[in-house]
Amino acid sequence: MTVAPTGPRFADGPAAPVLGGVVPPVCTPLTPEMEVDVPSLERLVDHLVGAGVDGLFVLGSTSEVAFLPDAHRRTVLETVVKHVAGQVPVLGGAIDMATLRVIEHGRAAAGAGCDGIVVTAPFYTRTHPAEVEAHLRQVAAAAPVPVFAYDLPVSVHSKLDPAMLLRLAAEGVVAGVKDSSGDEGGLRALLLALRDEGTSGFSVLTGTELTVDSALAMGVHGVVPGLGNVDPKGYVRLYRHCRAGRWAEARAEQERLLRLFGIVDAGAPARMGRGSSALGSFKAALHLRGIIDCPITAPPQIPLDAAETERVRRGLAAAGLL
C-alpha cells in the first residue's frame, strides 16, 4: 500500500510504510470514582473514527498511561479494540520501566487484539544505549505484533540513537518510530538516512503536532497529535492538504490548530504542572464538546478550575468548535 491522500493503513506490500496518516493518541475518560468511563471512551472512538483518522494509539502519554493501573489498561485495550471492530488499526502502548514488564504489557495488548505495540526506552534507572537496543530487540522478539519505537526523551530521559533505529529498521526488528523528541533536524537526518540506505517498510510518525506540514514536507508518514482528540477533522484536513500538495491550505490549517493548541496553557503554572494543564485542557475540551461525561484526570494531576475551563471554552469557540 502506498501513501495516499486519503491516508494509509497497515501496508500490504514490503516497500510501503507500515502505518501513516493521522493516528491520534486517545485520551482515557475517567469517572469521578477514577474508573475507566467506558461509554465516554466509546463515544470518543466514534468521534475520532468518524472524522476519518487512519489509526488509534491507546495507552500513550495523552492516554495518561503512566497514571493507570494494569486493570484500567486492560479495560482501555479491550474497549477500544472491540468498539473499533477493525475499522482502523489500533496501537497499544506497552510502556513501563523495564523489559519484562514491557513484554507483559505487549502480550496483553496483542491478546486484546491490537495491531501493534508502542515501546519507549527503559526508564527510572539510567540505561546505556546498548541496553536500550537490547530492550527493543527482546520486546520485539517476544511480541506477536509489530513494534513501534517511541522516542520520548522528555519523559524517559533517553534519546533513541538514530544509528540504532537505522539498524533495527533495516533488520525489520521495529516497524516504525513515533518521534516526540522535538528535534526536527534529527528527524530530517533520520529520514534522509533511511532513504540513503534504501530502507523500506518503516513508518516515521511525528508527535510534534504544531509543525505537521513541515514534517510531512520532509517525508514523515504521519502524525500522532494529542490535540487530535479535540479536533480530529482539523488534522485530517491538514494531512490531506499536504498529501495533495495544497501547501497554502495546509499552512492555514496548521496555524489554526496552533492557535487552538493554546488551550494547553489554560492551567495556572503557579498551582499545577504543564502535564496537568495540557491533559486537563484536552479533557475539558472533550467535555465541553459533549464527547465525554467528566473531564477529570488521574491523580496526582490537578484538575482545571472553572476559570481555567472557561479559557478552554474560549479557545474552542475561537477555533469554530463550539
From TrEMBL:
Q: Does the keyword Lyase apply?
A: yes
| UniProt binding sites for pyruvate | 62, 224
Q: Please state the Enzyme Commission number of this protein.
A: 4.3.3.7
Q: Which residues form the signal peptide?
A: none
Q: Which organism is it from?
A: Actinomadura luteofluorescens
User: What protein name does the entry list?
Assistant: 4-hydroxy-tetrahydrodipicolinate synthase
In the record, the note on similarity to other proteins reads: Belongs to the DapA family.
Q: Which CDD domains match?
A: DHDPS-like
Q: Keywords for this entry?
A: Lyase, Schiff base
Q: Does the keyword Lyase apply?
A: yes
- Which GO BP terms sit in this record? small molecule metabolic process
